[in-house]
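Worked example 3 (structure in, sequence out).
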């Protein structure tokens, strides 16, 4: 690791960094040209040379690096990584001890003190996500810390720093004994099939754990459920286990069909009693409207950005229209679970999309519950955009 490079923070930005803002952005600093090699240690000072923080250089779509410490005497070394990961592991003790949930996040980037790095746990297997070449330069520190701190069956890793922050496909096994995939993990007693070495997504999005449980325990019984952008059918599965009368899962990706069947079967649910449809959601909506279909519970969990043959969906622009179409196929007094992981807008803005959609549809509504990230997806007050998940349970009134 090279010795540290001193970068000056522009005067109008220094207050924010003093308050603990962790993301280093290009427009906040002078002397950008001093940044040569990702992983380079950066010392941030104010324009008069007074210490602000120490971090590293690493390109992500969000910024060009992360502040790791505000203590001048603290070095970014093996001990630093050990301490951060140890603290993070201890913070999840309750989840480690919960036999009903064997998949959760162990380390959540800047929320746990190191932006650009996440670590997930899947029943004894660890999965490290590297979000920049810069953080990847600290790989041996992270691995050594993890190996010293936890027992593991194996460690896997994903590199998410290809062009435009894309995932780089590779053999992702690091150490331990290779897993025999799928491995089966549990979430609140429900089984999921997990594949750690098969592309960017592993089979489940762990940040929706509380929402899935809530849907199973309080919103499903006797209900006709539509799950859009259903991926491996996780929400449908929880609905079915909560005694939904029927579920329909819709996803564009071919893989979603077999993976949804697999998850249903792992939980003793007869998948043939449910509909699993491989289709563009917007096309399905046209069909549903034509046929006058309606549902008691509709789950919307689209990606922030998606392009299909016919449509491009951008959450910040198109969520309102998605809601409008959803309202027309939701029963009166039915529930819409609207979710987004888009970090370009906050909860208040998201609520304005809901309001607009209902006003345009001439229906009244009531927001009955709100969710954001669960405990293990730790976030910090100085970086609210890190708490990206926004979920609204909306009741359609008359
Ligand atoms: N709700 C899921 C996660 C969604 S991931 C869960 O709880 O696990 C996003 C999914 O949207 C992907 O599976 C992708 O294939 C699907 N998708 C993207 N655009 C789509 C479209 N236009 N119609 C249907 N599915 C789409």
């Amino acid at each position: 690791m090279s010795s540290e490079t001193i970068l000056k923070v522009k005067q109008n930005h220094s207050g924010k960094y003093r308050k603990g803002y962790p993301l280093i952005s290009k427009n906040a600093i002078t002397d950008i040209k001093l940044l040569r090699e990702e992983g380079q240690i950066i010392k941030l000072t104010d324009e008069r040379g007074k210490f602000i923080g120490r971090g590293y250089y690493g390109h992500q779509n969000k910024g060009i690096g992360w502040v790791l410490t505000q203590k001048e005497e603290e070095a970014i070394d093996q001990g630093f990584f050990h301490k951060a990961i140890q603290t993070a592991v201890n913070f999840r003790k309750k989840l480690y001890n919960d036999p009903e949930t064997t998949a959760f996040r162990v380390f959540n980037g800047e929320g746990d003190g190191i932006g650009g790095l996440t670590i997930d746990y899947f029943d004894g297997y660890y999965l490290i996500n590297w979000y920049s070449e810069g953080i990847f330069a600290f790989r041996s520190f992270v691995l050594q810390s993890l190996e010293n701190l936890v027992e593991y069956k194996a460690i896997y890793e994903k590199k998410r720093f290809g062009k435009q922050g894309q995932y780089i496909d590779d053999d992702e096994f690091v150490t331990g004994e290779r897993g025999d995939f799928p491995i089966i993990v549990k979430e609140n007693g429900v089984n999921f099939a997990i594949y750690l070495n098969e592309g960017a997504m592993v089979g489940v999005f762990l940040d929706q754990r509380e929402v899935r449980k809530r849907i199973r325990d309080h919103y499903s019984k006797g209900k006709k459920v539509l799950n859009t952008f259903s991926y491996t059918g996780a929400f449908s599965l929880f609905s079915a286990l909560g005694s939904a009368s029927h579920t329909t899962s819709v996803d564009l990706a071919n893989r979603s069909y077999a993976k949804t069947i697999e998850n249903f079967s792992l939980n003793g649910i007869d998948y043939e009693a449910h509909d699993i449809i491989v289709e563009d959601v917007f096309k399905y909506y046209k069909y549903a409207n034509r046929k006058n279909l309606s549902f008691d519970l509709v789950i919307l969990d689209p990606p922030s950005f998606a392009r299909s043959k016919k449509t491009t969906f951008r959450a910040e622009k198109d969520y309102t229209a998605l809601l409008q179409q959803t309202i027309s196929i939701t029963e009166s007094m039915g529930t819409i679970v609207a979710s987004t992981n888009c970090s370009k807008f906050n909860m208040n803005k998201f609520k304005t999309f809901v309001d607009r959609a209902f006003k345009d549809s001439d229906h009244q509504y009531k927001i009955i519950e709100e969710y954001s990230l669960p405990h293990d997806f730790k976030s910090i007050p100085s970086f609210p955009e890190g708490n990206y998940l926004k979920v609204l349970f909306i009741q359609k009134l008359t």
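Notes: The mean pLDDT is 96. The two ends are 63 Å apart (CA to CA).
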